[in-house]
UniProtKB/TrEMBL annotation:
Record's keyword annotation contains Hydrolase: yes
InterPro entries: AB_hydrolase_fold (IPR029058), Hydrolase_4 (IPR022742)
Key words of the record: Hydrolase
PANTHER family, sorted: ALPHA/BETA HYDROLASE DOMAIN-CONTAINING PROTEIN (PTHR12277), PROTEIN ABHD13 (PTHR12277:SF81)
Record bears the keyword Nucleotide-binding: no
Chain ranges of the Serine aminopeptidase S33 domain: 93-213
UniProt protein name: Abhydrolase domain-containing protein 13
Length: 285
């Protein structure tokens, strides 16, 4: 009986500790904005290192956060033939300097490219949160809407991991400029991801207030938006079943495609053979 009491007491203590850990530190777990060599708030690589002309953007949000981004436009001669824009939405670690090879890929393919650091990342001010990142996204969409060139372009949202959740949020606003969405290794919700990433927290996942409920929001996107789902077979953070479920939730849409990359993991999916050909074919639709 004493052993049983000890076991129950230990279990209760561990559960309480797990609950406190998740509730108090969830924003640091979900938004590890310091997990880069230079940390947050430090200048990073710029597009000129990749021979790209760019505008260095500082855009202020309604709550007075300064969002830093890069805009790489196509030459005017090219814009007369094609005016399409890719908005890159990053995963939850790193900064926009680390995504410059992706910027170059899209720009070399003929697209305007806009990329920005979420609040608290790179040199953007503030601290990250779900509410804050959604305000950032709304602000960037309004910037596109009011830009003399971008306002007349067709916009593709390219979101990786957390960036996919941001993309789904923006797509659910049903702005007429958005006509394609590319999602890579994106989750149904943060709560449903916790048991996979932190198994010891699975019984207290309900305490997570950073929801990112993509499972619900994706059903609000208008049916004329085209979707491409890129999923890693061996994703150690987001179970491929999450991506498959998101795909199924848009089954009535104008166009959708699901690609499973065999042997790929969460962070190396873009390196797999055929990845960029698939993306290019989708953008050409």
């Amino acid at each position: 009986m004493d052993y049983l009491k000890m076991f129950l007491a230990t279990t209760a203590s561990l559960t309480t500790a797990s609950a406190l850990l998740l509730y108090k530190y969830q924003q640091k777990l979900i938004y590890p904005n310091h997990l880069v060599a230079d940390g947050a708030g430090v200048p990073h690589d710029t597009p000129d290192l990749y021979d790209l002309e760019y505008e260095d953007l500082i855009i202020e949000t309604i709550d007075h956060i300064k969002i830093h981004g890069f805009l790489c436009l196509q030459p005017k001669s090219r814009l007369n033939l094609q005016n399409e824009t890719v908005l890159i939405l990053n995963p939850n670690a790193g900064n926009i300097g680390l995504a410059l090879p992706t910027v170059k890929n899209f720009h070399n393919s003929g697209y305007n490219v806009l990329i920005y650091d979420y609040r608290g990342y790179g040199t953007s001010t503030g601290e990250p949160s779900e509410i804050g990142l959604k305000i950032d996204a709304d602000t960037i969409l309004k910037f596109i809407e009011n830009h003399e060139i971008l306002k007349d372009s067709e916009v593709t949202l390219y979101g990786r991991s957390l960036g996919g959740a941001v993309a789904i949020y923006l797509a659910s606003k049903n702005h007429p400029l958005i006509n394609k969405v590319i999602l890579e290794n994106t989750f149904l919700s943060i709560r449903k991801t916790i048991p996979h990433v932190f198994p010891f927290l699975k019984h207290v996942s309900w305490l997570c207030h950073q929801l990112w409920d993509s499972e619900t929001l994706i059903t609000k996107v208008q049916s004329n938006v085209k979707f491409l789902f890129l999923s890693a077979e061996l994703d150690e953070i987001v179970p491929p079943s999450h991506m498959k479920k998101l795909y199924e939730l848009v089954e009535e849409y104008d166009y959708k495609k699901f690609i499973l990359f065999e042997g790929a993991h969460h962070n190396d999916t873009p390196l797999y053979p055929g990845y960029w050909d698939i993306v290019s074919d989708f953008l050409d639709l």
